[in-house]
Amino acid sequence: MTITRLVLPGPSPTARDAVLLCAGLARLYEDGATAVECDAGAVTAPGLGVVEVLARLRVAAGGRALRVTGAGPELRALLELVGLLQLFGEAEEREPAVGVQEGVEPGDPPL
């Protein structure tokens, strides 16, 4: 697997940056990248602009691998707040679906 890096501009990317970054991401995949790491190390003042940029990059990636690296704790907290923490390759903690049984004990009645 070829991992290529895409660097987010700092200190806080804006929606305007999203257009150029999405075009760059498309070029990387066209050139043969099978996975892209989005380096967020320069993002020191995260806001809703970087959330929009990362969400649009996720959409532009389609089903291909895209992961954010180098993010500071403020950006990680912001992405967790808006439900994009999975961009770090970490599973979100979710409640089990209603009516789903996690384990079966002997003598449990059928559902």
The neighbouring-strand order within the major sheet is 1-2-3
Gyration radius from CA atoms, angstroms: 18 Å
From the spread of the alpha carbons, the general shape counts as extended
Beta content comes to 5-15%
Describe this structure in words.
This protein is an alpha/beta fold and 111 residues long. 35% of the residues lie in helices and 14% in strands. It is built from three helices and three strands. It has helices at residues 15-30, 48-61, 73-81, and strands spanning 3-7, 35-39, 65-69.
Secondary-structure topology with pairs:
Elements: E1 3-7, H1 15-30, E2 35-39, H2 48-61, E3 65-69, H3 73-81
Parallel strand pairs: 1-2, 2-3
Helix pairs in contact: 1-2
Give a brief rundown of this model.
With 111 residues, the protein is an alpha/beta fold. It is built from 3 helices and 3 strands.
Which key terms come to mind for this protein?
111 residues; alpha/beta; 35% helix; 3-stranded parallel beta sheet
